Structures are given as C-alpha cells and as structure tokens.
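User: Before I run my own analysis I want an independent prediction to cross-check against. Here's the chain; please return only the structure tokens and, at the end, one sentence I can use as a sanity check.
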Amino acid sequence: MKTDRTCNNSFWTNEEDKIFENTLATKGDNNNLLEEMAKALPKKSADDIKDHYNILIEDIKAIESRYVSLPYYPEMQN
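Assistant: Structure tokens:
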C-alpha cells in the first residue's frame, strides 16, 4: 500500500528531519523506535512520525528498484 503524501498535513523543518534521521540511525534497532521518535520530536504526533517513516521506506524502495535514477555527479577535479 502506498502512502498518500498529501494525507500528511504535517510540515517537517530541516531540523526535525535531521532529528528524525539521527534518531533512526541511533535507535533504529530499538523495539520502541516510535517511542524514541516521540521523545525526540515532541511536537509531532505518532501518526506524523509513522507517515514520515513510511514515506522514507517508499523512497528507499523506489531507489533500490531503480525506479528513481540517482543523479549524475561529475568527478571532482583536483
């Protein structure tokens, strides 16, 4: 089931995204990930966090399936 990106009315700031990413990176193997996210992002509801996570998973699947191509970055010249 695809997450409808328009159903999530929550706006995420760059700072909130970074907190989300850092919490996922450091607590991702925790069975209480949602609780950890809620502690780290007290202004976000559980539904906001779940929606944001599901969108991330969809993005990863699209990239891994090569549905979305990665951008071309020219090699840096020394």
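Sanity check: The chain has a mean pLDDT of 84.
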